[in-house]
Amino acid sequence: MSNVEVTIDYGRGQDREMAQASAAKSAISDEAKRLGIDGVGTSDASPLEHVRRSMEAAISRGYVPPEIVPSPATILKLATPTHHLKSARSVISAYQAYYTGEAPSDDPLVGTIARYTIANHYEDLRLRLCRLADFMNRTLGARTKVMCCYVSLAEKPLAERAGLGFYGKHGVIVTPGHGSFVVLGEILTDLELEPDARLDHTCGACTRCLEACPVGALATPYFVDRTLCIQAHCGRRTTIPPPVRAAWGNRFYGCTTCQDVCPYNAHLKPTSRRVEHGRVGNQVRLEEVLLISQPEFEERFRQNQIGMRERNTIRRNAIVAAGNSRSETLIDALTICARDGDPMVRQHALWAIWRIRGEAAGPALAKALEVETDPSVVHEINTLLDGIAGVA
Fold first, then answer.
1. What is the Cα Rg of the chain in Å?
2. For the chain, what is the HEC assignment?
3. β-pairing, 173-174 with 166-167?
4. Model confidence over 228-240: pLDDT tens digits?
5. Are 231 and 334 in contact (CB under 8 A)?
6. Quick one: which of 132, 150, 52 has its CA closest to 92?
7. 51, 65, 172, 346: least CB-packed within 10 angstroms?
8. 202 pLDDT exceeds 70?
9. Mutual orientation of helices 362-371 and 375-391 as an angle, nearest 10°?
10. Across 375-389, average pLDDT
């Protein structure tokens, strides 16, 4: 049988351009699937005008700590894809699912690590997107730029615009197939691709996430109060408010309570993908990280989001979890932390000792007060001593 060559005539002008764009989009989608990317959607590269308004609303409500309020220039960058690639005409949004079904530990001597950072899924998705972008460059002659870092571009609004998911009342994007347990990334390109339709889904009357938040950070649907949110505190060098410490539980890094109770996450099929990049597991022994050295910290959390934070910020997280353990076995390590050169570490360690020993911590607190010079730590000690005196 002889080979028959088939030629498809797309016509001319606009029809030809539309057909070529459709073929390009189909090729990109097929390659994304081949590369193991769980979901892709397309939107145009126009500015996200509502991002500025939403950020201003959050700031005006006091939901953004003053020290991290973004400048107008930063908000403009977040909301403008063409700031990152001037020739961008389309944005390909993508997500990678990370739900593995692993249950967090309830051992008080163990610090739990949130699902999304058990391994570095952001980096894994970024590498897959780089391979997809290379395919686009080689086969379609496209100019591209890969983004996979929520601090550079407003990923969630782009994902919503591309039809990948919808905003839950917890402020997280919910996808139809993998719930909200996904990380996001983008490819900016000069190709003009047909935008995908937005999803017609909502949370309806459900308020489970709002009610489940242990610190009340979701008082306003679709807004997260980052002055309270445990997740927001985990990576920031700051004094954690006492009510938030008390609700912290045994978390070491991250909080997904609002996602854990979401009905869209109730019957997810665990992903079979095992990401090795930056894998740290879903828990740590608190005793092992309270006094962790800088070299040990860098090795233990290498290539993971945790390791990208300041060591003492992460130690502070462990200290708060240690206080909530109510375990005397951690007192020796916490006592050393209470003499640390970092005031933030001392402040939280003294609280943790009080949390474990209660009224019996009075002598140790009084002794610390005799030598303490940092105003924040002095205030912490006096507050704790006043509380003990009030009980007595």
1. 25
2. CCCCCCCCCCCCHHHHHHHHHHHHHHHHHHHHHHCCCCEEEEEECCCCHHHHHHHHHHHHCCCCCHHHCCCHHHHHHHHCHHHCCCCCCEEEEEEEECCCCCCCCCCCCEEEECHHHCCCHHHHHHHHHHHHHHHHHHHHCCCEEEECCCCCCCHHHHHHHCCCCEECCCCCEEECCCECCEEEEEEEECCCCCCCCCCCCCCCCCCHHHHHCCCCCCCCCCCCCCCCCHHHHHCCCCCCCHHHHHHCCCEEECCCHHHHCCHHHCCCCCCCCCCCCCCCCCEEEHHHHCCCCHHHHHHHCCCCCHHHCCHHHHHHHHHHHHHHHCCHHHHHHHHHHCCCCCHHHHHHHHHHHHHHHHHHHHHHHHHHHHHCCCHHHHHHHHHHHHHHHHHC
3. antiparallel
4. 999 999 999 999 9
5. no
6. 132
7. 65
8. yes
9. 150
10. 95
First to last CA, the chain: 99
**In sequence order, what are the beta bridge partners of 42?**
92
Cα 14 to Cα 10, 20, 26, 194: the distances in Å are 10, 10, 18, 13
Q: What does the pLDDT average to over 250-262?
A: 97
Residue 246 has pLDDT above 70, yes or no: yes
- Model confidence pLDDT, tens digit, residues 324-368: 999 999 999 999 999 999 999 999 999 999 999 999 999 999 999
Question: 274-313 pLDDT, tens per residue?
Answer: 999 999 999 999 999 999 999 999 999 999 999 999 999 9
Cβ atoms of residues 334 and 349 within 8 Å: yes
Q: How far apart are CA 41 and CA 238, in angstroms?
A: 37
| pLDDT category of residue 323 using cuts at 50, 70 and 90 | very high
Residue with tokens 């004094």, as numbered in its chain: 239
Burial of 273 (0-12, 13-18, 19+ CB in 10 A): middle
Distance CA(176)–CA(263), nearest Å, equals: 11
Distance between CA atoms of residues 312 and 314, nearest Å? 5
Task: Quote the percentage of the chain above a pLDDT of 90.
Answer: 89
Contact 312, 156 (CB under 8 A): no
